[in-house]
Design a protein that fits this description.
- The protein is of the alpha/beta class.
- It folds into 4 domains: 3-75, Alpha-Beta Plaits (2-Layer Sandwich), CATH 3.30.70; 92-323, P-loop containing nucleotide triphosphate hydrolases (Rossmann fold), CATH 3.40.50.300; 344-544, P-loop containing nucleotide triphosphate hydrolases (Rossmann fold); 558-593, no CATH class.
- The chain has 22 helices and 28 strands.
- A hairpin with a 3-residue loop joins strand 24 and strand 25 (537-540).
- The longest helix has 18 residues, at 489-506.
- The N and C termini lie far apart (60 Å).
């Protein structure tokens, strides 16, 4: 291999490549190495190009000339040996693996499409890594030999012999009803090897659904049942892929407490988690994943949870002297001014809505110029009903909203358009193209998805597209229901940044429902708190300052947060810790004034 090609990889997105439809093999035609008579870019059996990483000189001509931008030539930022796993020629590869720690919780932090789920599946014994040799069958014997003399050797020997049992909770819990049928209680009883079913179901607040069919559960209920099924098994290592999806703030922190009990019992726990507040609360250590989405991922060395999250936000890995992001992500350390002095853009009256088994009431409120009002509250308390009332999708019982305000609404559940590309989706809607280009696309990279079919996007990609489309509509205000769902931790903050930027430029207000405390802290100027009884009645208070709103919300949950001095990010205090008791005695659950 040429000396300068050791750190170079070539990636081709086969889903985007259109050569078999007739692009005349442009990349091969413009390649200067091909013109010398060598085969740097050739056509494979599927009539799509294959790039030789040994011969490639990184001239980047093929990447610039490709009409659909499906080629990436990447000079790696780090000296690396063979990948742990590579999916095929010119395809994604993963470098290094996370290391389980007995009696500790290890978190994985990083963007989507960097190999977190692949790493977790490898550690769970669900996938044998091929060590970069994708042409031959991967075997555990090869893997054990590869790690000989290192800590990971004993892990793979244990997996191979069956002595190291791993319990695995997959990412896509919504697919579980397609695999398993039956009542929740019977299914959990079958996997209850630790004989702790009553304790675990009560701790996760799912005792009331034990008699329900798995297919009848909500997303939050299904997630908690999946977590319960994972931790009821008797294992040495528990691997959980995104266990907080669909859960509200209280459910997320409660789930974290339950997982911590496993570590307290001496078990090893490894978790992929995009909610930084939950990851911080849950973990002892973290690994940072960095690289290029869909191309390669590198797993950092093990770090304490505080240092790891701070380095992730700073975009700089200190022990490797490596910067993987240009911009540092920082939070405000003090609350915004309690008095909002900007112009009132719209007012809404008290609203009431009754259903057969649920009722909602709201206080009247005002939305100000350029402000973002966050909406916080438990699941099944009426938040989505409230935004639907303001969007005109539902009608209130007590009054008639006669305003002429035009709303741009991003619903909680997104139904993708079929048979069209992302570019065609934006073309069919009337959007502000300058706003899209200058404030949205440069943050959320939507044009990179232009050639993809909307109904084939991942959950995170679809969410970014839906948020972007909503932000670029001509309207008077924005309603965004759970815009961070399915989006990775870095893109969550980019979405928040896009929302703030658009509201500032357009002077329009926005209402944002979300369960991620850090996301709400980053994006919101004021807060609407929902109170009541889940699935029975909900009440929305008027918008209030971040200080008062967050304090009230967290007081209702019995949770306090402090500020990290380096980044300003909110950090959940351990229950009944010295800091927790001090803040609660002062009545300061969130900010220190």
């Amino acid at each position: 291999m040429a000396e300068d090609s050791k750190l170079r990889i070539a990636i081709i997105d086969k889903d985007l490549c259109i050569n078999e439809q007739g692009c005349n093999f442009i990349c091969g035609g413009v390649c200067p190495v091909n013109r010398t008579g060598k085969d740097c870019i050739v056509l494979g059996e599927d009539n799509r190009p294959i790039i030789s990483e040994d011969l490639c000189i990184a001239c980047m001509i093929c990447t610039k000339k490709c009409p659909v931008k499906c080629i990436n030539i990447i000079n790696l930022v780090h000296e690396l040996k063979e990948p742990i796993h590579q999916y095929g020629i010119n395809s994604f590869r993963l470098y290094r693996l996370p290391l389980p720690r007995e009696g500790k919780v290890v978190g994985l932090i990083g963007g989507n499409a960097l190999g977190k789920s692949t790493a977790l599946r490898i550690l769970a014994g669900k996938q044998i890594p091929n060590l970069g040799d994708y042409e031959n069958e991967a075997t555990m014997e090869k893997v054990i030999e590869f790690f000989r003399g290192k800590e990971m050797q004993s892990v793979f020997e244990g997996i191979n012999s069956g002595e190291l049992k791993v319990s695995f909770k997959p990412q896509n819990v919504d697919e579980l009803p397609l695999i398993q049928k039956g009542k929740v209680g019977l299914l959990l009883k079958k996997v209850d090897e630790r004989k702790k079913m009553d304790e675990v179901t009560e701790s996760l607040n799912i005792s009331s659904v034990l008699g329900h069919e798995l297919g009848d559960l909500s997303g939050g209920e299904l997630q908690r049942v999946a977590v319960a099924a994972c931790i009821l098994k008797d294992a040495s290592v528990y691997a959980l892929d995104e266990p907080s999806t669909y859960l509200d703030v209280s459910e997320r922190l409660n789930m974290a407490k339950v997982l911590r009990t496993l570590a307290d019992e001496g078990k090893s726990v490894i978790v992929i988690e995009h909610d930084l507040a939950v990851l911080d609360y849950l973990s002892d250590y973290v690994h940072i994943l960095f690289g290029r989405k869909g191309a390669y991922g590198i797993i950092s060395s093990l770090k304490t949870v505080k240092a790891g999250i701070n380095e992730f936000l700073q975009g700089f890995i200190s022990d490797e002297n490596l910067r993987f992001r240009e911009k540092e992500l920082k939070f405000e350390t003090k609350p915004p001014a309690s008095e909002v002095k900007s112009k009132v853009m719209l007012e809404y009256p008290k609203l009431e809505k009754k259903f057969s088994s649920f009722s909602l009431s709201t206080e009247a409120g005002k939305l100000m110029e350029s402000e973002v009002v966050g909406i916080l509250g438990p699941n099944a308390i009426g938040k989505t009903t409230f935004v639907k009332l303001l969007a005109g999708i539902e009608n209130p019982d007590n009054t008639e909203l006669k305003w002429k305000h035009k709303v741009s609404y991003k619903p909680q559940y997104i139904i993708p358009d079929k048979g069209i590309t992302v570019e065609e989706l934006f073309d069919k809607h009337k959007i502000d193209k300058n706003l899209f280009k200058n404030e949205v696309d440069r943050r959320l990279k939507i044009t990179e998805l232009n050639e993809k079919q909307v109904d084939e996007l991942s959950g995170g990609e679809l969410q970014r597209v839906a948020v972007s489309l909503a932000l670029c509509q001509e309207c008077d205000f924005y309603l965004l229901d759970e815009p961070s769902a399915f989006i990775d931790v870095e893109d969550r903050l980019k979405v928040a940044d896009a929302i703030r930027s658009v509201t500032n430029v357009t002077k329009r207000p926005a209402l944002v429902v979300d369960h991620d405390i850090l996301f709400q802290d980053y994006v919101s100027n004021r807060i609407i708190v929902f109170e009541g009884e889940q699935s029975k009645k909900g009440h929305a208070l008027a918008p209030q300052s971040m200080h008062d709103g967050m304090n009230l919300f967290l007081k209702n949950l019995g949770i306090s947060y402090r500020r990290d001095p380096a980044t300003g990010r909110p950090r959940a205090n351990k229950l009944d810790s010295v800091k927790d008791r001090e803040q609660k005695e002062k009545g300061e659950y969130y900010y220190s004034l």
